[in-house]
Amino acid sequence: MAYPILGPIIGGVRLSAQGRKVIPVENPATLENLGDLVLATDADLDAALAAAERGFAIWRRTSPLERSRVLRRAAALLRERVEDIARVMTLEQGKVLAESRAEILASAEIFEWSAEEGRRTYGRVIPAREAGQHFEVRHEPIGPVAAFSAWNFPMVLPARKVAAALAAGCSVILKPSEETPGVGSMMVQAILDAGLPPDALSLVFGDPPHVSAKLIASNVIRKASITGSIPAGRAVAGLCGQHLKRCTLELGGHAAIGVFADVDLPSVVAKLAATKFRNSGQVCVSPTRFFVQNAIYDDFVVGFARYAKGLKVGNGLDPESQMGPLANARRLESVERMIADAVQRGVTVVAGGNRIGNVGYFHEPTVLVDVTDDAAVLTEEPFGPVATILRFSEAEEFVTRANSLEFGLASSVFSNDLKITRYVSEGLQVGMVGVNEVAYGLAETPVCGVKSSGTGHEGGIEGLADHMVTKFITERS
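Given the sequence above, the corresponding structure tokens read:
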């Protein structure tokens, strides 16, 4: 298929390049120019705000049943178009085709689940104190939402934001990453094709700080949502605080994994290594700090390194590739800097450690041991195919070291001892805990962080609730 025409979509109309700035979109595997992206002007952003206001007036009055029908049709269209969208995702972002397909199907599930859950935004009647009184609680859509999404999961991330907002009855202005614009564009087109009123969803691109500042400052916008870095989240939170807007922040992570000596080591190594190098490690909940109990430490390192060395890295369009390139030059430079810093501090590289070739942003799956606590790779989010393996003795030590950073998104514990798993899962300061598991972010489950990893919820009934306001009505007859 041809690469999609890229540009803002406002009121159901795709804007042309005439009179607007245009930037190239790069293929991270080949460094070729995939196409041009049209950026929104300030006048376009004003038009999107006006459309969101009109769209909210229509969509909030649309019955939950009809909203559900539209979102279910959108899910069906995403499934029908999975191969075309997957190819675009791999071209833009680099991940292997199998991962692209899985992400699109997961996004369709999000729309389908939100379609059904949006029909169950129940209120309640509170027993009144006197005869003739009536107390009622209602949940109503908060209003137009500004949603900002990242490039690492270019469909799942915006799908969580858009599906929940639309299911609640809100209108949305979506700004995906300018590095992966085709996927967001194809998702929006599928939703519009499903019958959504055109003004209820707009798509814009532009300089992120400028777009977020302009949209959040508008009286039209009542909530902002962002998936991104901690600095970007702080900037959006500051804008929302200044204008008293609700915000949902899904930010960075540095997941600690505690592996105790009583586990089935081969199966745990295989599960954790596969999870670590998924999407080239560019996953907010990706396991990055592997704490392994002393008795099995050496065997864990050998098995993990063997897995990393066996991965075939290549263009995501190649069916034999198991890991694609990093998504952009920034990520490659960051990974190389962290590894160089670690080596300078005496860290041992037991697998990988180097860039692959000089065309595309390919890097070897890398495993580091004997990592010092002050190494950049342990204090900053790696967000790449780099795993650090550390020793620990007892559960208390693992919990203390896992909680030592500002991050608080996700962590896991692997043990067959219920006493240990209960102690660790209760002690970890994160929004999501895996017990013998590393699966997060399903349609029906909340994604949430604590500390510097964010606030609010996406996914599950909690994500839907974050797009609604609670109204109390007292009535006397």
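The chain has two domains: 9-251+453-476, 255-442. Try to locate this feature in the token string yourself.
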